[in-house]
Amino acid sequence: RQNKMAEDSTNLGRVDSATGDDRHMSSVLTEEQKESCRIMFEKVSDYLKGELTANSEDYRLLQQLNQITSAKYSDMLALAGRLNTSTKQLNDKYESLQPYLNQIDQIESSIGTLEQTAYKLDSYTKQLEEKFKSWEKK
After folding, report:
1. Mean pLDDT per 10-residue section of the chain, whose length is 138 residues
2. What is residue 137's DSSP assignment?
3. Burial annotation 18-57 (CB, 10 A radius, 16+ → b, else e)
4. Given this model, what pLDDT does residue 88 score?
5. What are the CA-CA distances from residue 49 to residues 19, 21, 44 (Å)?
6. Which residues are paired to 115 by β-bridges?
7. Phi first, then psi: what are they for 136, rounded to 5°?
8. Of 10, 18, 40, 80, which sits most exposed with the smallest number of CB within 10 A?
9. pLDDT at 3
10. How far apart are CA 20 and CA 97, in angstroms?
11. What are the angstrom distances between the C-alpha of 69 and each of 55, 56, 62, 79?
12. First to last CA, the chain
């Protein structure tokens, strides 16, 4: 490949016999110019290789990121499945406890009614006691 570039650079000063084009005759390249061209082609080649390598590395990194992200989403999916199962189990337990919770609510209501009745009874008892004391005094 380097030989091909060097050969092309040496042919720049020759006349094209098929077309008779001699426009390059006035610009015959010196050895120093040929070497500069060769170095320039090498540098451009190295630059392009570097760019392609960088792009390849970028794509490789993106592929790794996609694989990691896919694994994380798989983990999250498994976690969501376990959470869903746990939630269903908790809902089932709550439904099985619901009759007992209803009974507790009824007992609480009954206790409230009983407490009000006890206060009324206490008040009535105090009134009776006062009446009794007033009769005793008479």
Report:
1. 49 48 60 93 95 95 97 97 97 95 94 94 92 84
2. H
3. eeeeeeeeeeebeeeebeebeeebeeeeeeeeeeeeeeee
4. 97
5. 36, 35, 8
6. none
7. -65, -35
8. 18
9. 52
10. 104
11. 21, 20, 10, 15
12. 138
Please tell me the distance from the alpha carbon of residue 14 to that of residue 8, in angstroms, as a whole number: 10
3-state SS, residue 16: strand
Helices (H), the chain: 2-10, 31-137
The answer to whether the beta carbons of residues 12 and 29 sit under 8 Å apart is: yes
Q: What residue has token string 């407490």?
A: 115
Using an 8 Å Cβ cutoff, are 21 and 15 in contact? yes
Phi-psi region of 15 (alpha: psi -120 to 50; beta: other; left: phi over 0): beta
Report the residue count for the chain.
Answer: 138
User: Would you state the pLDDT for residue 132?
Assistant: 87
Find the farthest-apart pair of alpha carbons in the chain and give their distance in angstroms, rounded.
157
Give the C-alpha separation, 73 to 67, whole Å.
10
Give the predicted TM-score (pTM) of the model.
Answer: 0.46
DSSP state of 23: T
How much is the pLDDT for 119?
95
